[in-house]
Amino acid sequence: MKNLLVVIIVIAITSVSGCAQNKKAVPDQVKTAFAQKFPDASNVKWDKENDAEWEAEFKMSGKEYSANFNLEGIWLETEFEISSNEIPDLVKAAIEKEFSGYKIEESEMSETAEGKCYEFELKMGKTEVETAINSKGELIKKESIKEKVDDGD
């Protein structure tokens, strides 16, 4: 019985340390670039977005942000949620024109090297759409994300 307990403990420790070793470390150049761009960030949590990109989720000025950097530490994008009163009038007018009858479920500001845009999840009935509109009120992305079907499950 004692031997079984020792074997279980050794396996548990090995499993935990093995998992910790599989987690890749954030490259120093990415951390440095992040610290320079967001010196006031707090509660930073890193995640590998894909093979070429790291994402930091953090808080700053009372808001939750996410920022993406490539492996060389070049900033790619920052996103944060905005309230309806932070949406510019030109962008609101574009939503009303292009998506009459839809309700805003989520709204975010996205900033890249090319500029700012506003991203939305919109819903009307069982239809949901993701859209992006630039600061001039021009539609730059429209994508149906799902049509919910009530199949009784």
Number of distinct helices: 3
Task: Tell me the number of structural domains.
Answer: 2
User: What name does CATH use for the topology of the largest domain?
Assistant: Nuclear Transport Factor 2, Chain: A
Q: Major sheet, described briefly?
A: 8 strands, antiparallel
- Poorly predicted tracts of residues: 3-8, 10-22, 148-153
Helix content: 25-40%
- C-alpha-based Rg, rounded: 22 Å
Give the termini separation: 46 Å
Q: What is the H-and-E element order? A: HHEEEEHEEEE
| SSE class | alpha+beta
Overall mean pLDDT score?
85
Rough outline: elongated
What is the number of E strands? 8
Do you know the CATH architecture of the largest domain? Roll
CATH class of the largest domain: Alpha Beta
DSSP strand content: over 45%
- Identify the strand order in the major beta sheet: 1-2-3-4-5-6-7-8
Tell me about this structure.
This protein has helices at residues 2-22, 28-37, 89-98; strands spanning 42-50, 53-60, 63-70, 75-81, 103-112, 115-124, 127-134, 139-147. It is an alpha+beta fold and 153 residues long. It folds into 2 domains: 24-78; 82-153, Nuclear Transport Factor 2, Chain: A, CATH 3.10.450.360. It has an 8-stranded antiparallel β-sheet with strand order 1-2-3-4-5-6-7-8. The longest helix has 21 residues, at 2-22.
How would the blueprint of this fold be written?
Elements: H1 2-22, H2 28-37, E1 42-50, E2 53-60, E3 63-70, E4 75-81, H3 89-98, E5 103-112, E6 115-124, E7 127-134, E8 139-147
Antiparallel strand pairs: 1-2, 2-3, 3-4, 4-5, 5-6, 6-7, 7-8
